[in-house]
Automatic annotation (TrEMBL):
Belongs to the CheB family. Phosphorylated by CheA. Phosphorylation of the N-terminal regulatory domain activates the methylesterase activity. Its EC number is 3.1.1.61, 3.5.1.44. Contains a C-terminal catalytic domain, and an N-terminal region which modulates catalytic activity. GO terms for biological process: chemotaxis. This is Protein-glutamate methylesterase/protein-glutamine glutaminase. It is found in: Cytoplasm. The active site is at S161, H188, D284. Its main location: cytoplasm. The keyword Kinase does not apply. GO terms for molecular function: phosphorelay response regulator activity; protein-glutamate methylesterase activity; protein-glutamine glutaminase activity. The lineage of its organism: Bacteria, Bacillati, Bacillota, Bacilli, Bacillales.
Length: 351
């Protein structure tokens, strides 16, 4: 008899007791580790390589859906999710990166005793079905909701260099969990370093952060970081927008270049454009800002203040264009982005 190794990610002591009792009644299952929050849970997935995960969606230290998708992005693994009701269960399934790996079970309502035979029976049934269900090996990296160009969509483009990783962390972690407007970022970094930056930011924020892939569809709720050594552009194909990566000559001494990304957005018609310049050395981005404003005077330019910039090079070059709409401290950039999206006639959901 093969033993099924189970990891529990559960914060509530009573829920943990209930689940533990249900599992211990079946000798085929073995609890190999427990975690009381999302961050700890994700680390233990990597450390213990369980066969199945029991995840209570109501956990601290990381949004429950976020840790669910972090796990699925790392590995396609069966996950039984405990929810408070049908509506919360539907929300979880709608947001899951790989629905084939996920099954929902409702937690008992009212007073939760240490043993409930009815719950235990259905709980074990759910586990058995998950184990029997073939799991798709390939990861689901894209949302099922690509942006359609027949709407007044919004794009946020960000350029940064020296001090950028810390600045990006501040901006992205301060955005609302349900912020859906796509964000494209050029961070001056050599090849290889941008992937680890994307993974770290993806772990720290509720948003989906990834290193951009050539020709992929730009989707809502996703942050794209240009790979080191490649320019990143926005390209419109048919009814949707795509990422285009190239290895053309460096611009302003950089590849990726902020100006290249900004110029590509300037070409887009009937979309809301928001450009952000954060801390960095040099002047990359200033010419792109000029072109954005020239092509669309309603483009919004947000600049990081001198006082909060590690290096006031790129922000100063943009400030000198006299085209900046808002100069704000780093900690206020995220609030300004939410405000601007609302002001442009949409909301933080992008369209």
């Amino acid at each position: 008899m093969n033993i099924i190794k189970i990891l529990l990610i559960i914060h509530s002591r009573k829920t943990l007791q209930l689940v533990t009792k249900a599992i211990e009644d079946n000798k085929q299952y073995q609890i190999i580790a427990t975690a009381t929050n999302g961050v700890e849970g994700f680390y233990k997935v990597i450390k213990y390589s369980p066969d199945i995960i029991i995840l209570d969606i109501d956990i601290p230290a990381m949004n429950g859906t976020k840790v669910l998708n972090n796990i699925l992005d790392y590995q396609s693994i069966p996950i039984l999710v405990l929810t408070r009701g049908i509506q919360q269960g539907k929300q979880v399934m709608n947001q899951a990166l790989n629905k084939d790996c996920v099954t929902i079970i409702e937690k008992p309502q009212g007073k939760m005793d240490s043993y409930q035979p009815s719950f235990s029976f259905h709980f074990v049934q759910k586990i058995e079905r998950l184990i029997e269900k073939p799991v798709e090996e390939s990861k689901v990296l894209e949302s099922t909701n690509p942006i359609q160009s027949n709407k007044r969509d919004s794009f946020i483009v960000i350029g940064t260099s020296t001090g950028g990783p810390r600045a990006l962390q501040t901006v992205l972690t301060n955005l609302p969990d349900d912020f859906q407007t796509p964000i494209l970022i050029v961070q001056h970094m050599p090849s290889g370093f941008t992937k680890s930056l994307a993974k770290r930011l993806n772990f720290l924020t509720s948003l989906q952060v990834k290193e951009a892939v050539d020709k992929e569809v730009i989707v809502n709720g996703t942050v794209y970081i240009a790979p080191g050594g490649k320019h990143m552009e926005i390209q419109k194909l048919d009814s949707s927008f795509h990422i285009q990566l190239t290895e053309l000559s460096p611009v302003n001494g950089h590849r990726p270049s902020v100006d290249v990304l900004f110029r590509s957005l300037a070409k887009m018609k009937n979309v809301n454009k928001i450009a952000v310049i954060l801390t960095g050395m040099g002047k990359d981005g200033a010419e792109g800002v000029k072109l954005l404003k020239k092509q669309d005077k309603e483009t919004i330019i947000i600049n990081q203040s001198k006082e909060t910039s590690i290096v006031y090079g790129m922000p100063k070059a943009v400030e000198d264009t006299n085209l900046v709409d808002y100069t704000v401290p780093l900690t206020q950039v995220s609030d300004k982005l939410v405000y601007v999206i609302e002001m442009l006639g949409g909301d933080k959901n992008g369209y």
